[in-house]
Amino acid sequence: RHPVASFFHLFFRVSAIVVYLLCELLTSSFIACMVTIILLLSCDFWAVKNVTGRLMVGLRWWNQVDDDGRSHWVFEARKVSAQGGKTSSEAESRIFWLGLITCPMIWVIFAFSALFSFKVKWLAVVVMGVVLQGANLYGYIRCKVGSRKNLTSMATNYLGKQFLRQ
């Protein structure tokens, strides 16, 4: 239903990873590579947070500052339609969650690789990848599961059920 959103959901994520992997082969300028990767990661963060999450799975999150200056995080899920049918397709949902979970894991692998190979200059770029894509992952998990209280109780219930099965 939303092929353009599905394309851009993966395009910026995969492009940042590909540029990170190939940039030393393409150019010797670290600054050009760093700027390109961070721009791709920023575009990905914005697109996922503001467009693809809403269109593909009906979830969104944002930060709201009240009049007192206190920050409140708002997590929202689209309500199910009156007919009980889903408003997003199963394929789009799979694409969304696969891209949302897989790419931050790849950036974490890159972080350990940069750390253990002593490529300290690349560590800053990789940390930006982990932070930006990890923030979207955390926000959308909170949207899907609910509040932090629900998240911990859900984890406790799951572990309790696993323990009882054993």
How would you summarize this macromolecular structure in one to three sentences?
The protein has helices at residues 3-26, 30-56, 90-116, 120-145, 148-165; strands at residues 59-65, 71-77.
Task: Throw out a few tags for this protein.
single chain, two-stranded antiparallel sheet, mainly alpha, about 170 residues
Structure notes:
The chain has one domain. It contains five helices and two strands; from the N terminus they run ααββααα. Strands 1-2 form a two-stranded antiparallel sheet.
| Percent in helix | over 70%
Radius of gyration over alpha carbons?
A: 18 Å
- What summary fits the major beta sheet? 2 strands, antiparallel
**What's the domain count?**
1
Mean pLDDT reading: 86
Note the run of SSEs as H and E: HHEEHHH
The helix count comes to 5
Low-confidence stretches are: none
Q: How many individual β-strands?
A: 2
Instruction: Estimate the strand proportion.
Output: 5-15%
N-C termini distance = 43 Å
Structural class category: mainly alpha
Report strand order across the widest sheet.
1-2
- Rough outline: globular
